[in-house]
Amino acid sequence: MKLNGYIDHTILKPTTLISDVEKLCKEAIQHQFAAVCVPPPFIKTAKQFLQGSTVKTATVIGFPFGYSAIEAKIAEVVLAMIDGVDELDIVINLIALKNNDWQYLANEISHIIPVIKQQQKTVKIIIESGILTNDEIIKCCQLYAPAGIDFMKTSTGYAEQGATVEAVELMRKHLSPSIQIKASGGIKTYAFAKALIEGGATRLGCSAGVAIVQQQDATAAGY
């Protein structure tokens, strides 16, 4: 199992430089990663650096806390699509979730999904599993699975708890096979990345993608 095709090579820090994005894209092309995930202002830049390659360009919406108004998230989505994004990683409104306002969450996703699907882009919904109970994760699966999402994503990487194998396994159990799972947050080793995939993840969001594939190569070589 080669991990490179599972990886979204990611840089989302607020101090990201153009040179950081260039390096990210060059590494993604070299290692044939699935996508790069960059801050919204760098979508066009990443597309230019990736020109001629098969690597997709992803960005984040409502990041990292998710409490932007629905209208603001839609505006972010539209601007990202104008800039040429392929995949959108959208943070749900966690305030609504923790206040048990599932109607708000249903309304939010029902307004956002059609805008994206009109342009046939990929939708990943970030639920921030590390700060949710198992029951809340299951409720998210039940709400978002019928909404037309392509991926459910564990984490932003900004909460106190990132991806876990247990959360991925729970999501896999409660999602239809057609919906993929992206694990992200704290994935720094080949062993952990492999365990997440074995648990059901089909995409990994990480800034340590190069180190992970190097560890895989070293393991395969018996080092």
Q: What keyword list fits this structure?
A:
223 residues, alpha/beta, TIM Barrel, eight-stranded parallel β-barrel, 9 helices, 16% strand
- Radius of gyration, rounded? 17 Å
Amino- and carboxy-terminal Cα gap: 18 Å
- Count of spatially separate domains: 1
Shape: globular
Strand content: 15-25%
For the sheet with most strands, the description reads:
8 strands, parallel, barrel
Instruction: State the total count of DSSP E strands.
Output: 8
Written as H for each helix and E for each strand, in order along the chain, the element string is EHEHEHEHHEHEHEHEH
Overall pLDDT level: 97
CATH architecture: Alpha-Beta Barrel
CATH class: Alpha Beta
CATH topology: TIM Barrel
Structural class, please? alpha/beta
Helix content: 40-55%
Give the CATH H-level superfamily: Aldolase class I
Number of helices: 9
Low-pLDDT residue intervals, each spanning 5 or more residues? none
Task: Please list the strands of the largest sheet in the order they lie side by side.
Answer: 1-2-3-4-5-6-7-8
In brief:
This protein is α/β, with parallel strands linked by helices. The protein has helices spanning 18-31, 43-49, 70-82, 94-98, 102-117, 134-144, 165-174, 190-199, 209-220; strands at 7-10, 35-38, 56-61, 87-91, 122-126, 151-153, 180-184, 203-206. It is built from nine helices and eight strands.
